[in-house]
Amino acid sequence: MDKIGKVSWQRFEKFLLAVGCEFKGETGDHRKYKKPGLLRPIIIPREKDLPTFIILNNLRTLGVSKEDFVATIKGL
How far apart are CA 16 and CA 22, in angstroms? Predict the structure, then answer.
């Protein structure tokens, strides 16, 4: 299994947009994204590198595996 490693919020945002999420707004330093069919929004902080637990929680919400994430993020 591939390791996720460090991902900046800008790169994770590119991933979110690539999988069909839409930017809905920003409150303070947190950005909100929505996607049809999701029960809750995706929230990411604008930190230099996102903590792994935030990435994993958002991948679980999206229903995306770590392997698919790594493959997609390499192509961006």
Answer: 8
Domain boundaries, the chain: 9-74
pTM: 0.88
3-state helix, strand, coil split of the chain in percent (to 5) is 40, 20, 40
Distance CA 59, CA 42 (A): 9
**Quick check: 34 and 41 in contact, CB under 8 A?**
yes
Reported as a single tens digit per residue, the pLDDT across 12-37 is 999 999 999 999 999 999 999 999 99
Distances (CA, A) of 46 to 12, 32, 75: 10, 11, 22
How far, in Å, CA of 26 to CA of 2, rounded? Answer: 31
CATH no., domain 9-74: 3.30.920.30
The owner of tokens 């698919």 is 68
